Amino acid sequence: MTDRFVAAIDQGTTSSRCIIFNQDGAIVAVDQREHRQIFPKPGWVEHDAAEIWSKVQAVVAGALARAGLRAEQLSALGITNQRETTVLWDRATGKPVHNAIVWQDTRTSGLCHELGGSDGQDRFREATGLPLASYFSGPKAAWLLDNVPGLRARAERGEIAFGTIDSWLIWNLTGGTSGGVHVTDVTNASRTLLMNLETLQWDQEILTAMNLPRAMLPEIRSSAEVYGTAVGHVAGVPVASALGDQQAAVFGQACYDTGTAKNTYGTGSFLLLNTGARPVPSKSGLITTVGYKIGEQAPVYCLEGSIAITGALVQWFRDQLGIIHSADEIESLAASVDDNGGAYIVPAFSGLFAPYWRSDARGVVTGLTRYVTKAHLARAVLEATSWQTREVVDAMFQDSGVQITSLKVDGGMTVNNLLMQHQADVLGVPVIRPKVSETTCLGAAYAAGLATGVWSDLDELRAHWQRDVEWSPRMEAPVREREYANWRKAVERSLGWHEESGE
């Protein structure tokens, strides 16, 4: 049998990658390129969507070259993407009308407060599973229509297309101005604050409340089906999946059974728990979201704990403070001391996400004494990720009654053994990394391969999953709870710093 290959594009917050997998789910080739981070004002984060499309084309060509493959040898192409990041573009020219507004951007905090009115953050939660927060795409699109001159009238005339990054890429891949397909999948649509979780369609009541014209919205489709055929570098290849990055990791980690959970450690961290065929409302600060939908099959839902800043804290430590020169230096620096010296860092750079949803929070460093060195701060940087994850796990138990017995992990930070050991210590359960840690790309590839017959069903995909490393907890329970109490005190001190200005 001739081996079949599936390419997955992973368009992330800081870079774009293309990974080509074979039929066993093994990596054949990878290509990756970073793109610019644009910070026009405090709290504002933007990307150049045209630059992103250019980088995506380059990494697809690069991965094919590294694999020694031609485009016609690909059975399918899948997409996974940074979620909530919002692009508006001109249908006639194919050009973005403004920089993309990134998921981390907080400029819509005032608008969200205004939209909440007397109902507050929960105004749309029953329909969407989401709190009204600057994190999500709908308010970002509304901000653009209100602030780019003439844009609202053009959108109402149907001249403007709205999308998250998946929509932008699929439209360009399938022809752009020459017949590009304008679609999104249920996982990305579930992050806009505009989709009804029960109907899996745009909610007209919310569109009216946000004053968003339906004419600019993509069609909502499943996560695994052929949306169209690619042109350009990969002409003729079926574009056959789209999943928001965290949902793609759920799929790549084979979390197909109710009660299975994974945490992805990237720019932020995102812990998702499969809750099965029904959405579970959260009363503990979590998000209810679509996990995936395969073709005509029923959707699978998840509870999610979204943490805004984890890997980005290491970047800040490297780039803004200059204490380390490369991200991998932090582990040896942190390991040179036995503990954090009493210092805690709460990275509320864009407010706090789950389980607090406080846009008024800002980052703090607490517990400083003359004893604290840069090594203690390095340790505090890593531990901030573990403690934020612990808070999310606690909230999941409160909402679902499901006590996790282990945690599957993936993402760039899982190469840090010190962090993974501390994560196991503060959760009190084993932390397990799979052999293929690029589970986000793998999930997109699996979904595209299912849609095109490369793989037959979920059981075949389950059989591919293999354990690589497992970290068992070593910390004594009294130490864990004492340090957790200190962390919670540090979080309290991060709240109430930023007053909404309405900007």
Summarize the structure.
With 503 residues, the chain is of the alpha+beta class.
3D structure, described in words:
The model has no long low-confidence stretch (mean pLDDT 93). Helix 13 links the parallel strand 21 (407-410) and strand 22 (431-434). Helix 9 crosses helix 14 and helix 11 (329-335) crosses helix 12. The relative contact order is 0.13. The termini are far apart. The radius of gyration is 22 Å and the shape is globular. The strands form 7 sheets. It has a 7-stranded mixed β-sheet. The protein has a 6-stranded mixed β-sheet with strand order 3-2-1-5-14-13, with helices on both faces. Strands 4-7 form a two-stranded antiparallel sheet. The protein contains 16 helices and 23 strands. 33% of the residues lie in helices and 22% in strands. The protein has helices spanning 49-67, 109-116, 125-128, 137-147, 151-156, 165-173, 186-189, 204-210, 245-252, 311-319, 329-335, 374-400, 417-427, 439-451, 458-462, 477-494; strands at 5-11, 15-21, 27-34, 46-47, 74-81, 86-90, 100-101, 160-164, 183-185, 195-196, 201-202, 219-221, 224-229, 238-244, 261-265, 269-276, 287-292, 300-307, 344-346, 364-366, 407-410, 431-434, 467-471. With 503 residues, the chain is of the alpha+beta class.
